[in-house]
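In response to a reviewer's request, we include the raw inputs and outputs for one of the modeled complexes. The two entities were modeled together in a single run.
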Amino acid sequence: MSEDDRQFDDRFDPDDPDHPDRAPAPDELAAMEVLARRLRDPALWSSPAPGLGTSIAGAIDEQRTRDDVAAELERLDRQSQRARAARRRRLRPLLAAAAAVIVVTAGVVAVGQLRGGDEPPGARGLDIDGTELAPEASATATVNTGGNGVAILLDIEGLEPAPEGSFYQGWVRNAEGDLVTIGTFHMREGDGRVTLWSGVDVADYPTLTVTLQEEGARADSSGQTVLRGHLTD
Amino acid sequence: MPDWLDDHELARRFPSGDPDVVAAVYERYGRAVHTVAMSFVHDRQLADDVVQATFLNAWKASSTFDPSRRLAPWLYTIARRQAIDVSRKVRRVEPVPHDRLERSRDGAEVPDAFDQAWEAWQLRLALDQLPADEEEIVRVLWFEGLSHSEAADRLGLPVGTVKSRGFRAQRRLASLLAHLDDRENRMPRRDVEDGDTTRGGARS
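The model returned the following structure tokens for the whole complex.
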């Protein structure tokens, strides 16, 4: 018997109204019957499997670890997305500029490819007229200033092919009348697109002429100009 | 197990998922959750599944739990919901216990499953607060139905000790469960209930 039990027993005598052996009062008896009924519920006395608590704590700990890892991965992913977005924002003007360059370049290249040339950027189109010697002739000149010189693309229409033993020669001329040759062609085949190259600045030599030359003749201009125009606006 | 943690502190620390805190919550409420589960599923293994699901779901939802509220009614609500879910899934049709049938014929009120589960929850928590020797006496006297002398033989105790422990346990239980009768054994069936037997501590 425990000390607690002994003290409990010692506290009661047979006449004590709280003694366990005394007859219970009717309301007390009713309460005891209710309690007894409740205590007969088998669900009260069933116990969980041993170790279930440890298993639950382990499962929650495992889930917590998985959640932590997932949250960390998500955080890193968000961080990475933010960094990519910031990089995109920083690069956007550069990308826009690059895109513009690409578009222009693509356009130039496309035109160049269509016309058989490979002109550098900075092209502009200018009208070149036929002279009295070739009134049906005309051309559009596109000037591209590049690192190696000035490319002058002529898109020529209505100009007859140079007769055998002759050829066409392009020139640029300054205000003093000095001439610089920019190349030769014959128009016997092809689509009329010709690229000529100038080693002098067309701003200083703004007048373009095309002359008909004879093979074996002097290297100077023959004076038989078939096309004439200005390479500056 | 951190015995010093009261109910509010346990509730506050439960969301951390700290195994020690989870173990403490289980130690305090695990058996009562199992009791609620048994009230619905009447199968120990299924009841254990309910216990596990209850604690896992409680932990997942714990970040939204207000730790100033009592942990016990919240856990009870989750446990009951889990038990009902499992009960529906297994589609068990349990026969009505014989004693309940008898009482029904007598016209006495038979508690439904909800009231019975709530009573069982309260009673289990009250039993958990009894000293182990008193709970044992209650078990053999009131659940197994042994007489004082039979219980004395079974437990190797003097009959007087069995009587005194039984009497003491009965008075403690009556005190712990007084509110059940005050409330006419009714438990609000809303999902968030308040009021319970627990005094914020496990068995002393």
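As requested, we also summarize the result in words. Strands of chain A lie at 125-130, 138-146, 149-157, 166-173, 179-185, 193-198, 207-214, 225-230. The two ends of chain A are 123 Å apart (CA to CA).
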